[in-house]
Specification:
Strand order of the largest sheet: 1-2
Distance between the termini: 73 Å
Structural class: mainly alpha
Helix content: 55-70%
Number of helices: 16
Shape: globular
């Protein structure tokens, strides 16, 4: 018996069920805290480096889209100076702290995301483009457009205090259908990123990329230039390089399978973390943002795991004594 073709309504229902399932706002809150903290402490471009680039160059070599837009509004001699960049950096860091603790969360996240994108684009406007930070910037913007401050935030705490003051009961953890789409979105971004990298290897090198010698040569040159002993050792292991080349290509080309098959997600996310850790220690490639985003998906894409852990922690904490009514006898 032939299976009926899904109607437009059924396809729309499936689309909504994939992108907008009902879930706890705790997952998004956890992702917000981890991502903003990482961006502030690890990924945010150095202010000193940005100032050095601006002062030593009288013009941009390859201005990025955001920088061209900003320069069209604010002249270079006003903003792209030590004082101007310091001001923008300070505003970005203040917004980052507010986003981290969840105070005016949406606005703070948007300002922080814009600051992050601005400084990354500024660095890349001098003909040294890597795009490592692009997925992180996309995710920060997605968080700003989602209810990332509904839980684990000062906003939520103040909302509960107002409810108590007005005599209303405490709100339970919010359930919403718009909390998961930023996580789904960054999963799609990573899938596209990995697939484009993998298919480029196939088109440029074909089967030769998996012969082991190509990877040996690449690792050897990188390890010598960057003085990486582990990479130098690995470049002499032909059989291991064959296995690593095949594994790398398989990971990059088939990461997208984690989208339609959720059970394949955790192995791919963990594989992504290990993949970038190995790249760092053998070739010196600091794809820390990709490590983090795979860890974010591993921890928070499952709708139940993180909320369950939060509930366990809250259950283990001592409960605050309820205020006793006036005149009550103990």
């Amino acid at each position: 018996m032939r299976r009926a073709i899904p109607s437009a309504r059924e396809l729309l229902d499936r689309w909504n069920a994939y992108w907008f399932p009902m879930s706890s706002s705790l997952n998004l809150a956890g992702a917000r805290i981890v991502t903003v903290a990482f961006a502030m402490l690890v990924s945010f471009p150095s202010l000193r480096y940005n100032i050095n680039l601006a002062v030593k160059n009288s013009a941009f070599s390859d201005p990025q889209i955001l920088i061209r837009a900003v320069e069209a509004i604010v002249p270079r001699h006003l903003l792209f100076t030590a004082r101007g960049l310091t001001l923008v950096y300070g505003i970005s860091m203040i917004a980052g702290v507010m986003a981290l603790v969840g105070y005016f969360t949406r606005t703070a996240l948007m300002v922080f995301a814009l600051g992050f994108a601005f400084f990354v684009s500024h660095v890349y406007s001098y003909a040294d483009v890597h795009h490592r930070e692009a997925p992180m910037a996309f995710f920060l913007f997605a968080l700003a457009l989602a209810p990332a401050g509904d839980s684990l935030s000062l906003d939520a705490l103040l909302r509960r205090r107002r409810a108590r003051r007005d005599g209303r009961p405490d709100e339970p953890v919010r359930q919403t259908d718009i909390a998961m789409w930023p996580l789904r979105f960054i999963q799609v971004v990573l899938a596209i990123t990995y697939f484009s990298t993998g298919i480029t290897k196939v088109i440029a090198g074909g089967l030769r990329w998996m012969n082991g010698y190509t990877l040996q040569n690449y690792i050897f040159i990188t390890a010598v230039n960057r003085d990486i002993p582990l990479g130098f050792w690995l470049s002499h292991q032909h059989t291991l390089c064959i296995l690593l080349a095949i594994g790398t290509l398989g990971f990059e080309l088939f990461y997208f399978l984690s989208l339609p098959f959720p059970r394949l997600g955790p192995p791919f996310f963990l594989g992504g973390i290990l993949f970038h850790v190995s790249l760092y220690y053998t070739a010196g490639h600091p794809f820390f943002e990709h490590m983090l985003l795979n860890a974010i998906l591993l921890l928070f894409l499952d709708r139940d795991w993180f909320p369950t852990q939060v509930q366990r922690v809250r259950a283990a904490l001592p409960r605050r004594a309820e205020p006793r009514p006036a005149g009550a006898v103990s």
